[in-house]
Amino acid sequence: MALIYGVRERKEVYTQVKDGTWIFHYELGEGPPLLMLHSFGGSSWAFREIVPTLAEHFKCYVVDLPGYDRSSIPNRRYTIEDFTDNIVELMDSIGLQKAHMVGQLTGAIIDVDMAGRYPEKIDKIAFISLPGWDPESGARVFWNWFVPRQPNGVSLPSPYQGSGPKEVWAYGERIRSQSGQWDAWGHEENTHWDVPGNVPKINHPTLLIYGEHDTQRRRESLMLELIKGSKTVIIPGASMGIINHDPDGVSREIINFLQES
Questions:
Q1: Residue 207: which CATH number?
Q2: What would the pLDDT profile of 212-222 be if each residue is shown by its tens digit?
């Protein structure tokens, strides 16, 4: 079931998937389809500065992942595979057979899973700050980074804090305050997911985008080795909040990659 609202040139859609969850996305632009997935703790708003430029070349489908912002919180804990299955169900519901993919952080992990289990759904992939942890190293990230910053055992630090203007990290705090428990579950799932064990399944043209000071670059060489034919671009001066630091640079790199033959 989909409810569609037109806002000028932007079309807003709410789609209910089989488990009852409502997923929000908006569509903007014309051209080859481009589906965009944000990080946990964020929403489609995270892409606000790059979508207008991308929409000059592509039809952008920009999603609020289940449990975030305008999408409803599911009635059970999700695995990464559950997120992926819902995105595929969303694509089928709106008649989107295949698309280019842009994924940021956990959105990138979901794209990895989709590339392995639903390869026919993807044309090219652009990963923004793809985490490269395995379950062991990811668990250390969860327990050493996320858990100590949970004041009530459920709330996690915003990935946007310190990565841009005050309104950017304030937005992240608002999004995750909708359900600290949901956000905590999601981060536990994503840090325990085996990225190196799954990226070799990718058989699509792949671009890895990192900021110059991005902490995810520590696994850049491993990702390049495991994703055959992939390549990297580095955004100068940027950290993990690349799309806030240099949206024009990120947009340019994505467009060049997706349009090259």
A1: 3.40.50.1820
A2: 999 999 999 99
